[in-house]
């Protein structure tokens, strides 16, 4: 197993550890915010590996079929697990419908990618998709921290942690929805173009067949 795939596997292993940290079985709950800080750090590390494995695979020419399968799978499991866990962990901030919208978006994009691959073309991640990833990381971490802290007081500065968490979550929903629409429009244009190319090829093929006879 090459280095990028090993990093992807590490991310998958981090997921159950992350869920354990957010569960009632975590032994250091309520101890100076250890649970929230530890879970936040682990999620950020897992998110960093999401970009690192792909970067190393492209840089060193180590793109493999296994990596192409594991990387998006690990991403979907990580996002889905985090959102479902947060619905139980901080239900006042992450509502069920919010989790459904964001998770549904992930499955929609996966389905469109599968169809695009079967049609012989790919759709690269847009800037909106990259923004969605960053905002999603911020929202997950802020929701975890808001489980313990309503605000931080740093000298004369007051940081409204809970307000930031709510704002980040709803902004994630907005960006996820817009990026899904953007992705669908790009997919539709390409699949429509591919269909026209097939019809044109079929007409040309029939024309050649007629001339030959």
How are the elements arranged and paired?
Layout: H1 3-21, H2 34-59, H3 65-89, H4 96-118, H5 127-146, E1 152-154, E2 157-159, H6 161-212
Antiparallel strand pairs: 1-2
Helix pairs in contact: 1-2, 1-3, 2-3, 2-5, 3-4, 4-6, 5-6
Which descriptors apply to this entry?
globular, 2 domains, mainly alpha, 2 strands, two-stranded antiparallel sheet, 213 residues
Order of adjacent strands in the largest pleated sheet: 1-2
Mean residue pLDDT? 83
Inertia-based shape:
globular
Unreliable stretches (pLDDT < 50, length at least 5) are none
Q: Helix amount, in percent?
A: over 70%
**Strand count:** 2
> How many separate domains make up the residues?
2
Structural account:
With 213 residues, the protein is an all-alpha fold. The protein folds into two domains: 1-84; 90-213, no CATH class. The protein has six helices and two strands; from the N terminus they run αααααββα. The chain has helices at residues 3-21, 34-59, 65-89, 96-118, 127-146, 161-212; strands spanning 152-154, 157-159. A two-stranded antiparallel sheet has the order 1-2. Strand 1 and strand 2 form a beta hairpin. Helix 2 packs antiparallel against helix 3, helix 2 packs antiparallel against helix 5 and helix 3 (65-89) packs antiparallel against helix 4 (96-118). The chain starts with a helix and ends with a helix.
């Amino acid at each position: 197993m090459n280095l990028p795939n090993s990093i992807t596997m590490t991310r998958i292993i981090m997921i159950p550890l992350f869920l354990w940290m957010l569960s009632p079985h975590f032994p250091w709950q309520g101890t100076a915010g250890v649970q929230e800080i530890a879970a936040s750090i682990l999620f950020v590390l897992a998110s960093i590996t999401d970009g690192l494995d792909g970067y190393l695979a492209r840089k060193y020419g180590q793109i493999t079929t296994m990596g192409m399968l594991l990387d998006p799978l690990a991403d979907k499991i990580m996002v889905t697990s985090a959102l479902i866990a947060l619905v139980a962990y901080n239900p006042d901030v992450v509502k069920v419908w919010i989790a459904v919208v964001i998770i549904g978006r992930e499955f929609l994009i996966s389905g469109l990618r599968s169809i695009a691959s079967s049609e012989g073309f790919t759709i690269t991640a847009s800037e909106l998709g990259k923004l969605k990833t960053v905002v999603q990381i911020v929202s997950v971490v802020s929701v975890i921290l808001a489980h313990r802290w309503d605000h931080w007081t740093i000298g004369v500065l007051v940081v409204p942690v809970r307000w930031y968490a709510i704002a980040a979550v709803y902004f994630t929903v907005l960006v996820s929805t817009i990026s899904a629409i953007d992705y669908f429009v790009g997919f539709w244009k390409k699949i429509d173009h591919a269909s026209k190319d097939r019809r044109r090829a079929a007409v040309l093929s029939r024309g050649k067949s007629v001339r030959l006879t």
